[in-house]
Amino acid sequence: MTAHVIGDTAVLTGRSLRHILRSPDTIITTALMPIAMMLLFVYVFGGAIDTGAGAGGGSYVSYLLPGILLITVASGIAYTAFRLFTDMSGGIIERFRSMPIARSSVLWAHVLTSLVAILASLLVVVGVALLMGFRSGAGPLAWLAVTGILVLFTLALTWVAVIPGLTARSVDGASAFSYPLIFLPFLSSAFVPTASMPGPVRWFAEHQPVTSIVNTIRALLAGQPVGADIWIALAWCAGILVVAFVVATTIYRRKVR
Asked: For 157-178, what is the mean pLDDT?
């Protein structure tokens, strides 16, 4: 990015963040559904679920938390698509085009706003998990690695959210795309070990991105070796990020040229 793009992105990001601070329900509602799921699975189903002796196996809330964090991210990006769609349909983007600002700064501002809002929601979810008994023996480097993975995962899904934000024909269409992403962790190791699943479902669960990301975060929080899962997780996040970035920016250039 040039200094011009960085300066314009900072100004537009500040504009979007002020909107969120005036209406913090975006952060609260993003965290509410994952917290409700965590309460339901820990206090209703948790006693009947055998997580085995793997990482976090002694505490179901500790086993569950990585998947809940990914669901929080998937919930949060629906607002990214909604905010971008609102700016596009409301003529805000057209007004920005008449100003001497870098065109790419508009998208980057939405992405960075989404990142800040989702990280705030993740902190709320982790706080509730601590109240429910979550404890971690992870050191500062492990927590830093967990934060880095969550930031990379959030950036990847946020750029995915930019695509429906630019192309949807209605606000419902812009927001509804995130539903499959929210439920993807249910077909992974987020709630139960994949070994307990039937053949085809188990194959899908073990080869989709959520499982490697969940396993990596779970091992880091438990202070255990992450093995090859961390490289698979990083490859998935980086791959999704690059593809979504290229597609989103191509669509955006065609719309604003």
From this structure: 83
